[in-house]
Amino acid sequence: MKSRPRVLVMGDLCLDTVVETWLPHTWERLAASGEHMVTLPIADRIGGTAYHFARRAVRFALSPTVVGAVGLDTGGDAVAAQLAAAPFEALIQSVGSAPTARTIAVYDAGGARYMFASPTNANDELSAAFVGTCGVESMDLVWISGLCLRAPTAPRYAAVIAAAATARERGIPVVLDVVPHDFHALFATFAEVHEVLGDLDGVVTEAHTAQRMLGLEHGGERPLVQALSETAEALLDVTPLAVVRMRNGSTYHQLALTRSKRRTSYAYPIPTGSALLGYGDTLAAEALRDHLESLTGRP
């Protein structure tokens, strides 16, 4: 039986507190009414870009290994316990220098999502020494969330650079998922990203973020298909695989394009409520599955 391609996954891990249903009123109406308590189902569950991508990668016949960090606290215990039951490998560093990342996700009756995240947390404490024990050289692909690059002085920043360097030395492709959507505030251009990570074999990005970083006109009245194509084609100057997506009403459209002109188009209905958590990672994982051979040389 053919083995599943192994993917090293570097991104955030956190404990999400999720309001499992819509608030009965919009946030503004609640504030105006003076109501300060609403009784609704609430659940704590594991989240973060690394977890969500790995979970979807399994669905698309990949074998992910998550590498991340949690704090020495109840949140870290909860994340570790849920990862132990996950259908993929997780190599977790426990650190005493910062708490486990926490987020709160609330959805109101108007369809708006509110996310509250802890600013200083264990994710950025992931060390290069720990990552060096995680078998980067045995992987078929390294997937890096852009969130790993938000704090240049943090240990994880250096750890990601080291992992990318090891991958390049061994001929292992490196894919960057350009998040958050204001990634251009961290790196104005892809040339700046290259100075940090070196050559990238794939980039996954929102169209408007790529347009800003490529110096392209964004917005306007261009047809969606044209905007995606123009952005993906320009991105091929940066990477051999460009995966670009854009929202249009209740549908997300995604285009994957390679330098050999292989083109795959996707269209997905946008879910509501807590189903939005990890939604973008589903899109990314499917595109990587479909273009794995062009990245790794193996079908």
Summarize, please.
The protein has helices at 27-33, 49-59, 74-84, 128-131, 155-169, 190-197, 207-214, 224-235, 279-290, 292-296, and strands at 6-10, 14-19, 42-47, 63-71, 89-95, 102-107, 113-117, 141-145, 174-177, 202-206, 241-248, 251-258, 263-269. The protein has 299 residues and is an alpha/beta fold.
Keywords:
13 strands, 299 residues, 27% strand, 4-stranded mixed β-sheet, single chain, alpha/beta, globular, UDP-N-acetylmuramoyl-L-alanine:D-glutamate ligase, 10 helices
- Give the overall silhouette: globular
Low-confidence stretches: none
**CATH homologous superfamily grouping:** Ribokinase
CATH architecture: 3-Layer(aba) Sandwich
Give the averaged pLDDT, no decimals. Answer: 91
The main sheet orders its strands as 5-4-1-8-9-10-11-12-13
- Total strand segments: 13
What's the helix-strand series?
Answer: EEHEHEHEEEHEHEHEHHEEEHH
Q: Summarize the amount of helix as a percent range.
A: 25-40%
Terminal residue distance? 13 Å
Radius of gyration of CA atoms, rounded to a whole number = 19 Å
CATH topology: UDP-N-acetylmuramoyl-L-alanine:D-glutamate ligase
- Total number of helices: 10
